[in-house]
Amino acid sequence: MGERRTWADKKAEVMSRPGAGAAYEAARIRFELGEAVRLRCEQLGLTQAELAERTGLKQPAVARFEAGGTMPTIPMLERLAEALEMRLSVQFQPLREAS
């Protein structure tokens, strides 16, 4: 049997591969956007089907988005914001300094 490795070691190995950092960042963004939509739907008492109707999407597309499975365009974010009774704000923020 091979040597057992910690999760931190395995993650470090994967993250050292070319392009892994960018892929990880894209996944983080998709997840955070999906989570924000999910939370706002809960606040408004909206189902995925109701959000889909408000945005002109199909329910499975909303489910994929909420799960972080798709990277939306700015126009799609605008449609979601309107459907969620919010204003879209896109900003650039400085990267955190590595510690």
Distinctive features:
99 residues; Cro/C1-type_HTH; single chain; Lambda_DNA-bd_dom_sf; 434 Repressor (Amino-terminal Domain); mainly alpha
Characterize the structure shown.
It is a single chain. By secondary structure, the protein is mainly α. The protein has a domain at 20-83: Orthogonal Bundle (434 Repressor (Amino-terminal Domain)), CATH 1.10.260. It has five helices and no strands. The chain has helices at 7-15, 20-44, 48-55, 59-66, 74-83. The longest helix is centred in the first third of the chain and has 25 residues, at 20-44. It is elongated, with a radius of gyration of 17 Å. The mean pLDDT is 90. One of its GO terms (molecular function) is DNA binding. Residues 37-91 form the HTH cro/C1-type domain. It comes from Streptosporangium canum.
